[in-house]
Specification:
Strand content: under 5%
Helix content: over 70%
Shape: globular
Largest sheet: none
Number of domains: 2
Distance between the termini: 42 Å
Order of helices and strands: HHHHHHHHHHHHHHHHHHHHHHH
Structural class: mainly alpha
Number of strands: 0
Length: about 550
């Protein structure tokens, strides 16, 4: 048991990159990261509370307040499943870490149990960040009794158990299937994207029909919503009865089923762990004969961009994590062409009730696109991912200005054309006619993109790390990867509110766009001026 807890602790310290700070006694950095983490959690909690408040008011007006807790449970389930699929196989079946761990004098069962528990504990903070802010409006509206709180706490702790098991199974199957192919990493990435989009599509399409609900009496609306939610997350019915009604049997059933599924998975995985790892990591792939071709000459900048492109394509998780927002933007643009009424109705339902006003359509589309595009930042971890090969780059007879320019330009060349294409699709679909509306729809997202790319690179120059043993740590959990996300949220979400209360949306969008362009030019000039010194200090 002691070995299990020690291994779990080590896995969590490595997952959150805390071990170097603690062992190096860098208390200042540790405190700074803690303050930044609390700030990020606060921003996320505010956004969750903002949307939950509107949903609770809508459910209360329909007399379906009891349907809100299972909705939160379903949201946690789907979110945990989507965001855990592509890291579950890495955390459970990582070959490099497994070789080190197997050399330790510990039992295999302790290793497997610690990895499964580490995966659960890594997802638990997200579940808490969603459920705690979301349940506050419900408590204010429903005013439940004292028994509600201990039941809610236990059910919240049990909520990620089943999704984590599903994510681990799907991740293992995807890794096993993709290992049969020569380009295993690319096949793995495509399969994970398909599974994630399928889960999101399933969760968004299985819902109550508003027209059918309008014809029902208020007493039947809650039942209709509960049935719709239970189709997304079958255990949500037990969750609703336990949390909203205080049903002891439902509470025991929900917690018992979740714990039993989790324990059964851990036990079964322990029996087949080594064969599964061997099967995933030792598949034979057909080798290609290397043939020396004609030598090609290119300019310095083009050569560095090609090098960065090969580096990018060698790390599929980097592509998946950084460009997922761009993929959603492209899908949204296509959906607008196919069924614009449904997409616009969804936007009106999600944003207008919380702000209490009608939002300007052109500006709103521009800000939604800006938010999705600004989430596509490759430069946030590009320096850190150089890792132990950085010396090879620094040994080349090139300047730091060219190296940084290649990283920025590659990000812009990949994202800017997609942003413009989605802007055109969205504008044509909704019938944007004004010249200013077209300007905001095309220029503002690109200005946001340049800002995020420059901020990501500058942040990674300042906060880089080369001591990683798993790419997931750098891509998903490093400060350089989180900084662009934070800046994106802080610069896009407040604009939605100001658009709602502004008398002249065009004037506001013009001021924001000009400010973005000015900041972009300043950051580009700063990077150009300091590139040599910063590159030498890496």
């Amino acid at each position: 048991m002691k070995a299990f807890w020690v291994l779990t602790k080590l896995q969590l310290l490595q997952a959150y990159s805390l071990n170097p700070l603690i062992q190096g006694k860098k208390w200042g950095k540790l405190l700074g990261f803690g303050v930044l983490g609390l700030y990020l959690i606060g921003i996320f909690a505010f956004v969750v509370y903002f949307f939950a408040e509107g949903i609770v008011r809508a459910f209360a007006a329909l007399g379906a307040l009891e349907a809100f807790p299972p909705l939160i449970a379903a949201l946690v389930c789907v979110s945990t499943l989507v965001f855990s699929i592509y890291r579950a196989s890495t955390m459970l079946f990582s070959a490099r870490e497994l070789e080190i761990t197997l050399a330790m004098p510990v039992r295999l069962s302790a290793i497997v149990a610690s990895r499964v528990m580490g995966l659960y504990l890594a997802n638990l903070p997200f579940a808490l960040m969603v459920t705690i802010p979301a349940i506050v409006p419900y408590i204010r509206a429903a005013q439940p009794g004292a028994l509600f709180y201990p039941i809610f706490v236990v059910c919240t702790l049990a909520a990620p158990l089943v999704p984590v098991v599903l994510a681990a199974i799907v991740g293992a199957l995807v890794a096993f299937a993709s290992s049969r192919f020569r380009a295993a990493k690319y096949v793995n990435m495509l399969l994970l994207v398909a599974v994630s989009l399928g889960a999101m599509y399933f969760s968004f399409t299985i819902n109550a029909n508003p027209e059918a609900m309008a014809s029902l009496d208020l007493g039947a609306v809650g039942e209709t919503l509960s049935r719709a939610i239970s189709r997304i997350y079958p255990l949500s019915e037990l969750y609703a009865r336990a949390v909203a009604r205080g049903d002891a049997l439902a509470f025991l059933g929900y917690v018992g089923v979740s714990a039993l599924v989790f324990a059964a998975f851990a036990f079964a995985l322990g029996r087949v762990f080594l064969p599964v790892c061997t099967s995933i990591h030792s598949q034979r792939r057909s080798a290609r004969r290397y043939q020396l071709g004609a030598m090609k000459r290119s300019g310095v900048l083009k050569t560095l961009m090609l090098r960065e492109w090969r580096h990018l394509t060698a790390v599929p998780m980097w592509i998946f994590n950084s460009l997922f927002g761009l993929l959603l933007a492209l899908i949204g643009g296509v959906l607008l062409l196919i069924n614009k009424n449904a997409v616009l109705a969804f936007m009106a339902q999600e944003f207008a009730p919380q702000l209490g006003v009608d939002l300007p359509l052109g500006a709103m589309l521009s800000m939604v696109l800006s938010w999705l595009v600004s989430m596509s930042c490759l430069t946030g971890c590009t320096i850190s991912l150089e890792g132990r090969t950085l010396w090879q780059l620094k040994s080349l007879p090139v300047s730091g200005r060219d190296v940084f320019a290649a990283k920025v330009l590659l990000n812009l060349l990949l994202c800017a054309p997609v942003s413009l294409a989605v802007g055109v699709l969205a504008g044509v679909a909704v019938g944007v006619s004004g010249a200013l509306d077209w300007l905001w729809l095309l220029l503002t997202p690109c200005a946001y993109l340049v800002l995020i790319v420059l901020v990501g690179l500058l942040g990674n120059i300042r906060w880089h790390r080369y001591d990683w043993t798993n790419e997931t740590v750098v891509i998903k959990q490093s400060l350089g990867a989180m900084l662009p996300v934070l800046v994106s949220m802080l610069t896009t979400l407040p604009v939605v509110y100001f658009l709602a209360v502004a008398e002249d949306a065009n004037a506001l969008m013009g001021a924001i766009t000009l400010a973005l362009v000015a900041i972009d030019l300043f950051l580009a000039a700063l990077l150009r001026k300091k590139a040599g010194r910063w590159y030498a200090s890496l």
